Amino acid sequence: MQNSLDIEMIGQQVKLDNAFLTRIKAECGKVIVGQEDMIEKLLIGLLTKGHILLEGLPGLAKTLSIKTLASTVGGKFSRIQFTPDLLPADIIGTMIYNPGTNEFSVRKGPVFANFILADEINRAPAKVQSALLESMQEKQVTIGKESFKLEEPFLVLATQNPIEQEGTYPLPEAQLDRFMLKVKIDYPRKEEERQIMRQNLGGQDALVINHVASMEEILRARKTVSQIYMDEKIETYILDLVNATRGENKEVSMLINFGASPRASINLALAARALAFIRGRGYVTPDDVRSIAKDVLRHRMGLSYEAEAENITQDDIVDKILQAVVVP
Questions:
Q1: Tell me, what's the pLDDT at 198?
Q2: Contact 257, 304 (CB under 8 A)
Q3: Are 326 and 238 in contact (CB under 8 A)?
Q4: 223 contacts: CB under 8 Å, gap ≥ 6
Q5: 269 and 132 inside one domain
Q6: DSSP per-residue letters across 198-217
Q7: Taking a C-beta distance cutoff of 8 angstroms, is the pair 183, 100 a contact?
Q8: Among 63, 159, 242, 282, which lies 20 to 30 A Cα-Cα from 182?
Q9: Is residue 170 predicted with pLDDT exceeding 90?
């Protein structure tokens, strides 16, 4: 149990270690108009080693946001365009025969980078999706008889288009569960779109994104995030929210085929801590948990036929759960 002095010390450390986030946000703001929520969720992934699935219509700056974030921290960036003819070797790499030396050598694939953009991940078959998701889970890749550790930070940011179903391979629930957050991207507001239009007409390509944060700052921030105080009441609140997806709440039990796994509890706690860090606090509040609950839970629940017939979404169910569970 931590006393108020310990929490105050953690808070002071948070304010020292989260200064680089302001620089990252300012640098991203040069080219990304609006979408502050998406940038915040990307930072949560960066601070917690959590992979993120972005879902939104084309043209909403998903790819640009990820590429810009990679540029601000000076990390190596790889973009993989998922297509039906993609092979696992196109992602992780393969063994290449060299006739000169009469030997096989390893050619590493694009997964060997700090930031991986898996563009339209649902366009590739299950075998290719599994190759990437194995790298996400194990943080290493095996090519031939050799295993290679992936460099930290290692962050996979996958995108998918919610309106196109023809020629796609939806991610199975077990693979969706490996993503810490599923973030839904919406259209910008009218004035934001006016600014986007003016930027592009005025030559946005000339903008240079500066390297404003170091890997050392990120790793130090991750250590501080792990020390942020979480009261036992907040832990209970997280468990109550997750258990409500498993039928404990009668109001939503008929709407769900299956609930969130223990990964949801872990990721909700991690994300709430990261959010407290971003907001400059050394302790987690119920509002931190509520702010991130949809992103953690929406892809970890299966809708029943009743819910689909009534056009009830996972977000609607999370709203019902947040209203029903008592806030500490």
A1: 81
A2: yes
A3: no
A4: none
A5: no
A6: HHHHT-GGG--------HHH
A7: no
A8: 282
A9: no
CA neighbor of 9 nearest in space, from 282, 268, 320, 322:
282
Average pLDDT, the chain: 85
pLDDT tens, position by position, 78-93:
888 888 888 888 898 8
Interior/surface letters 225-240, b for 16+ CB within 10 angstroms, e for the rest: beebbbbeebeebbeb
Please give the pLDDT value at position 225. 93
- Per-residue pLDDT band at 215 (split at 50, 70, 90): confident
* pLDDT, average across residues 282-310: 91
- What token pair was written down for 264? 């949801």
155 shares a domain with 201 = yes
Alpha-carbon radius of gyration of the chain: 21
β-strand partners of 80: 118
Q: In what order do the strands lie in the sheet with 52-55?
A: 77-81, 115-119, 155-160, 52-55, 181-184
**Number of structural domains in the chain:** 2
Residue type present at position 75: G
The CATH number that applies at residue 163 is 3.40.50.300
Tell me, yes or no, whether 66 and 130 share the same domain. yes
Give residue-wise pLDDT tens across range 110-153: 989 888 888 888 888 888 888 887 788 888 888 878 888 888 88
Instruction: Report the b/e string of 106-143 with b at 16+ CB within 10 A.
Output: eeebbbbbbbbbbbbbbbbeeebbebbbbbbeeeebeb
Q: In which domain, by residue range, is 83 found?
A: 19-227
Rama region for 201: left / alpha / beta (φ>0; ψ in -120 to 50; rest): alpha
At 234 the pLDDT is 95
Residue 4 lies in a domain: no
Instruction: Give every CB contact of residue 66 below 8 A, 6+ residues apart in sequence.
Output: 42, 54, 77, 115, 117, 157
Confidence of residue 263 (pLDDT cuts 50, 70, 90): very high
> Which residue, among 222, 233, 236, has the nearest Cα to 265 in the 3D structure?
236
